[in-house]
Amino acid sequence: SQQGEEDPQALSIQEGENATMNCSYKTSINNLQWYRQNSGRGLVHLILIRSNEREKHSGRLRVTLDTSKKSSSLLITASRAADTASYFCATDASSSGNEKLTFGTGTRLTIIP
Amino acid sequence: DAGVIQSPRHEVTEMGQEVTLRCKPISGHNSLFWYRQTMMRGLELLIYFNNNVPIDDSGMPEDRFSAKMPNASFSTLKIQPSEPRDSAVYFCASSIWDIIGNTIYFGEGSWLTVV
């Protein structure tokens, strides 16, 4: 079963607008990561937030983490057509490292030029 | 760095045939993962290795699937015999544990169609 569930499943916005995607998970985690997948390609790591962090920024990306609610959000500001992709959250619940990430079901983001 | 390299990129095979997917992880990475992605089930972890040793194969669907990692620079995922329901994109990924976390680097995938 999926550890993470993204919401919404699909999102379409106009270029220049902000896009927000949410992720909920079930168990305690060490960190949470967001990945992007362009159509027909592999997943690419975007950003990692540790369990003791609440917010993190990277360029136009802003990630928040609320461990009490077991949820995270990914905000993409000033969206561009090139941001069109599927976005996945992934949780790391390992105790010793080098263990598996569990991926959510993904949000399909479409940016309308 | 060339990244994670997978082959073949695309394969169409007949039901009952053996399929072998290959992966070369990023040099220096000590963990390797095989994932399967379908529209219905999303991204599923099949098996992962740490320092060439299989750690968790609980995601392998059934005995028709097997994976090996004979050395740090090569892994295979084999399906024998293949069935139409095995049609999916199979991703290999590798990582190295560091103090920040376990960031995974994916290959471009092997697109398998079993007819």
Alpha-beta classification of chain A:
mainly beta
Structural class by helix and strand composition of chain B: mainly beta
**What is the element string of chain B, with H for helices and E for strands?**
EEEEEEEEEEE
The helix content of chain A, as a percent range, equals under 10%
Largest sheet of chain B: 7 strands, mixed
Chains forming the largest contact: A-B, 25 and 26 residues
Terminal residue distance of chain B: 36 Å
Count of runs of 4 or more consecutive helical residues of chain B = 0
Beta content of chain B comes to over 45%
Secondary structure tally: strands of chain A = 11
The separation of the N and C termini of chain A measures 36 Å
> How is the biggest beta sheet of chain A arranged?
6 strands, mixed
- The chain-level mean pLDDT of chain A equals 90
Q: Stretches of chain A where pLDDT falls below 50 for ≥5 residues?
A: none
Kindly state the percentage of residues in helix of chain B: under 10%
What is the number of beta strands of chain B? 11
Principal-axes geometry of chain B comes out as: globular
Radius of gyration of chain A, taken over Cα atoms and rounded to an integer in Å: 13 Å
Instruction: Based on Cα principal axes, name the global outline of chain A.
Output: globular
Poorly predicted segments of chain B: none
What is the oligomer described by this structure?
heterodimer
